[in-house]
Every structure is written in C-alpha cells, then in structure tokens.
Amino acid sequence: MGDSSDSVSVDMETISVAGKEHLVKTGRGYVSVAVFGDQDKPALITYPDLALNYMSCFQGVFYCPEAFSLLLHNFCIYHICPPGHELGAAVMSLDDPVLSVDDLADQIVEVLDYFRLGKVMCMGVTAGAYILTLFAIKYTQRVMGLVLVSPLCKSPSWTEWLCNKVMTNLLYFCGMCTLVKELLLLRYFSKEVRGSVEVPESDVVQACRRLLGERQSPNVLRLLEAINERPDITQGLRKLKCRSLIFVGESSPFHSEALHMTSKLDRRFSALVEVQACGSMVTEEQPDAMLIPLEYFLMGFGFYRPSQCNVSPRSPLSPTSISPELFSPESMGLKLKPIKTRFSEEV
Q1: What 8-state DSSP symbol labels residue 156?
Q2: Which sequence ranges are marked TM in the entry (predicted)?
Q3: Residues with Cβ < 8 Å from 31, sequence gap 6 or more?
Q4: With contact defined as beta carbons under 8 Å apart, do 283 and 290 qualify?
Q5: Within 10 A of 91 (CB to CB), how many other CB atoms are there?
Q6: How far, in Å, CA of 234 to CA of 265, rounded?
Q7: What pLDDT sits at residue 340?
Q8: Crossing angle, helix 158-174 and helix 217-228, to 10 degrees?
Q9: Strands 76-80 and 340-343
C-alpha cells in the first residue's frame, strides 16, 4: 500500500490463517465448519445469510487487512455453514431431516460442544443473524457478544413472505435461475453496486452471482422454507445477557427491522451503526465501515489490535488517537450505551 497515511501492514507470517474444514455430526444432521486460527484463543463463530457461505458472506470483512489483524489476533474463527451450503456441497438427500430455525440454532450448541467451546462471540448476517440471536436467547450462557448485520427478529412481512414464496417455487421448478439470483442480489446489495444500464455492476456483485450459481437449489430451498416460517422472537430479546452491536445498510430491505430490533434490546448493552449507500451485506459491500465500531465494541471485552501492526490513523486503537478520557465507562460508547452512527464512503 506504499506510504499512504491510511495504510496498515499486517505480518501474515505471524498469524495462523490456515483453515481446516470439519464435518460435525449433530442430532439434526451434519454441519460443515471451517476453522481459521489458533484454537487456544477465544472463539468467534459466524453464520451467513440465505444461499451464502463464509466465502461469499464474510470474505470482504476478513480480507480487510485492519479487520483481519484485529479478529485473527484475538479469536479463532469458526465459520458455520447452513446444511448443504458448504463449498462443493452435494444435493441433500430426501432422508436428511427438514430443519426449522430452532433446529438450526440447536445445531450450533452441538458444534460448540464438539469443539469444546464455552462462551463464544457471534457474527451473523440477516438470516444468519436471526439464527444466532435465537441461539443466544436459548443458550444465554454460551454467548459472549453478538455482532449482527442487517438482522431479523420478526416473522416475515407480507412482502418478504411473498418474495420468498416466489423464490421457493422458482427454486423447485427452475433451480438457481437468473430470476432467483436477481432476487437474492436485491436482498444483499444496494442499487449503487448492483449497477444499471449506464453503470456496470461491481466486482463484488459479479463474484456473488458466480458463487450463487454453485449452490445446490434443493439445499437453498430447505433453508429458505425454514427462514420463511420463522417465529417472531422480539419478546425474547430482553432475555439477552450479552452486549450487541448491530450494523445495517440504509438501503437494506431489512433496515426497519434492524431499527425495531435495536429498540427492543437493552439500551445499556446495545448499539446501532447505520451505513449509508449500502445494502444488507455490509460485510461485503462496505467492510471498512465495520472496523472502527468493531474495535470499540471489542475493547469492552478487553480485546485489542496486535502491537506489531502499523495501525491506521483512523483506528480508535491507534496510540495517538486515544485520550485517557476514552477509558472512562461513560466514554466507551458501544460498550455501555446505544449510539447511532451514520457512515458514508465520503467520511
């Protein structure tokens, strides 16, 4: 990155990034888990949105050098794939159980037990955020904190229900056809990156379109049906004992749902970050927008950026940008009180 004042250098040799795929047998079928990093470190588990896996949902944020150094230095990453969504997945057998969202949440605790994990940090996107929130409500003692991107907590609106039904029928009769891909891309991304007649779609949308073409339609159909039958978990949000950080793109179809969810969480332990000109998948469309809120959030748990990295001047963990007052409880912001941050690419 040359000598840019906004650059960050990461010594890749000092961080273990070799991932290993595990196929974990649970009481509700097999789950694929990709593990990255030192398993002696605290665990961060991820769960992607509908029709995605960790490569298509979290690659942007984990390939951002600053976020990479922050997360891989502090955590071992466990990327959990929904059944049948892993790389190279075969078509699920008719004998495989049809799972509800409760079943998917219960699978997570079996994954944690398999790896002998205690409390974990969670990061999920939209449908994955719903499943991790449900998991946190059911197993409060297993969750350290929640990082939720464009999350869901209510039952589907009529608009979402109808759209999902259209996709269900298309997947059943036509497979992962062009129209299904377009509906999913509308779910994930803002119009700014989806392009138009005059402006070509961005590289991230093109890559996601290719990856969607690799999904097995019957497997996506199963998850879609589970998500479309999800119950409202709003009342359970008050049971959460962990801190929560919510990101949502202002162009996300689920923007109002994220605002609703924030209003129902304990305001002492939750925060909302709205990202301008961004769709639901902030992790891919604007991953840089997540860095500073994530750093403040993780500071509340005692996590920090590795000292061997040249920290960007934008970083709140840069020694030159931390004043003693920031360490007072009242000034921790994301740690103790809700805030609303508008992030735009011009900032």
Answers
A1: P
A2: none
A3: 23, 24, 80, 81, 83, 107, 110, 111
A4: yes
A5: 11
A6: 9
A7: 47
A8: 160
A9: unpaired
End-to-end CA distance of the chain: 20
Q: How far apart are CA 289 and CA 343, in angstroms?
A: 6
The tokens for 225 are: 């049906």
- Which tokens is 328 given? 């007072």
**Cα dihedral across residues 197, 200, 204, 207: positive or negative:** positive
CA separation, residue 261 to residues 53, 178, 223, 229, 230 (Å): 24, 32, 22, 19, 15
With contact defined as beta carbons under 8 Å apart, do 112 and 88 qualify? no
- Could you say which residues of the chain have pLDDT below 70? 1-18, 307-347
- Per-residue pLDDT of 234-278, as tens digits, reads 999 988 989 999 999 999 999 999 999 999 999 889 999 999 999
Residue 84 falls in which region: left (phi positive, over 0), alpha (psi -120 to 50) or beta? left
pLDDT digits (tens, 9 = 90+) for 91-136: 998 788 889 999 999 999 999 999 999 999 999 999 999 999 999 9
Residue 347 is predicted with a pLDDT of 41
Q: What is the pTM of this model?
A: 0.86
- The confidence score (pLDDT) of residue 249 equals 96
Pairing state between β 29-36 and 19-26: antiparallel
Which pLDDT score, from 0 to 100, does residue 95 have?
81
Cα–Cα distance measured from residue 212 to residue 176, given in angstroms and rounded to the nearest whole number: 8
Q: Where are the alpha helices (DSSP H) in the chain?
A: 54-57, 59-63, 65-74, 101-114, 127-138, 158-174, 178-188, 191-194, 203-212, 217-228, 255-264, 282-285, 288-299
Residue 210: phi, psi to the nearest 5?
-65, -45
